[in-house]
Write a structure and sequence with these properties.
Layout (H helix, E strand, L loop, with lengths): L2 E6 L3 H20 L3 E7 L3 H7 L4 E5 L1 H6 L1 H12 L3 E6 L6 H11 L3 E4 L8 H8 L4 E3 L7 H11 L23 E5 L11 H14 L4 E4 L6 H11 L3 E3 L6 H9 L3 E4 L3 H8 L4 E4 L23 E3 L23 H4 L3 H16 L25
Parallel strand pairs: 1-2, 1-4, 2-3, 4-5, 5-6, 7-8, 7-10, 8-9, 10-11, 11-12
Helix pairs in contact: 1-7, 1-11, 4-5, 8-9, 8-13
């Protein structure tokens, strides 16, 4: 039985969005008597093993691939030995150092999208394309759900209902209700000011005296967790840097509400049916958040809070000067008051009270836009 490499080494949030399509791809491979081999980011490898126990899984430490030449060489040699005859690069944006290097190392005909990061040179893009047997047209402005669906259809999956199966994660809600606060993100400039998180968390604890706050994040975000827990003092549990990926997913899945930046937390919450409020900037606006209801299989999409700017879609190449340690203007401009309106809307729907308007202005700020009215 020849194998097919399904490559997905992006961040955890990307994996959550890809999960139902990955399930369909694995089923399709097996129906065609092809053995799927999942090449994934080691950061969430344990979750992939839980979701795909019957598949061969090859984990890559993406950070070490970039900084450790010996490890990189070893991984690329191991990839060459994978028992596969075809490959599918499932990521929409491809980089040269990891994504294209994996395809090149595996050395078999590959399928993927003809799209690379905006800062890649023309000659780099040319050599990148030469590694693929077939490249699908770029889908600018489309949501990742639509892109994942297009890729699945390209390998022959045409009649599939894209639903998260209950086994994505099953969690019993804690008898002591809590909300998750995720103040971190992939880049400092994409993160909402931590003082704003503090303001809405304190207000929520006051509004819901029976709840407590659980702060989550990676090891590199411990300073944010320490800052928030020190100031919130009571009814707060700081788990930043103290959970593995399975514990992290469990923490989000058991919550009554999640508040985060544009990060994996909101995607996990949506996949697990947990109401979420996400602060959104304009770099990849529409690609990941807000969810596209035309393609969304999510019953409770995250509620996106943002201010509209004419530069949306910049791929995070900001036209404005941004001082180190500060947020991009599109993110810094989202006030705690705007986020609180969406939190209140979730709370009102959960208690059966009449919800506040989904749109409104705070001073001269543009309206908050959300994806759904279902928060409970």
């Amino acid at each position: 039985m020849s194998g097919v490499a399904l490559i997905h080494v992006k961040l955890l949030g990307d994996y959550v969005l890809w999960f139902p399509y990955g399930q369909a791809m694995v089923r399709h491979c097996k129906e065609c008597n092809r053995q799927p081999v999942l090449v994934v980011n080691k950061a969430y490898g344990a979750l992939v093993h839980k979701h795909f126990p019957s598949c061969q899984i090859f984990e890559i430490d993406c950070g070490r691939v970039v900084r450790d030449l010996r490890y990189r060489s070893m991984v690329l040699l191991q990839l060459r030995a994978l028992p596969v005859g075809d490959a599918c690069q499932t990521s929409y944006f491809r980089d040269a150092i990891i994504d294209d290097a994996i395809v090149r190392a595996i050395g078999v005909p590959a399928l993927g999208f003809d799209v690379a990061y905006a800062d890649r040179t023309t000659i780099d893009r040319f050599f990148s394309r030469s590694r693929f047997r077939r490249l699908l047209k770029a889908m600018p402005g489309a949501h990742q759900f639509a892109r994942n669906q297009a890729l699945a259809q390209a390998i022959g999956i045409n009649n599939e209902c894209w639903h998260f199966s209950p086994d994505f994660w099953t969690s019993q809600h804690s008898p002591s209700p809590y909300f998750v606060l995720a103040p971190g993100g992939s880049r400092g400039e994409k993160m909402w000011p931590v003082e704003y998180f503090l303001e809405v968390a304190a207000r929520l604890l006051e509004r819901c005296p029976g709840w407590h706050c659980v702060i989550v994040g990676s090891v590199s975000e411990r300073s944010l967790g320490n800052f928030l827990s020190a100031r919130l003092e009571n009814r707060v549990e700081n788990r930043v840097g103290e959970t593995n990926v399975l514990e992290y997913v469990e923490m989000v899945a058991g919550a009554n509400l999640a508040i985060s930046n544009d990060s994996a937390t909101a995607h996990i919450a949506a996949a697990c049916g947990v109401p979420a409020v996400v602060v959104l900037g304009g770099g990849h606006f529409g690609g990941f958040f807000p969810y596209d209801i035309a393609y969304s299989h999510i019953e409770r999409p995250p509620r996106s809070v943002y201010i509209t700017m004419p530069c949306f879609g910049c791929d995070w190449i900001c036209r404005y000067p941004v001082r180190k340690g500060l947020s991009f203007p599109c993110i810094a401009g989202v006030t705690p008051g705007l986020v609180w309106k969406e939190i209140e809307r979730c709370l009102s729907l959960a208690t059966g009270k009449a919800p506040a308007s989904a749109q409104g202005k705070e001073g001269s700020k543009p309206a908050v836009t959300t994806g759904t009215d279902e928060c409970s």
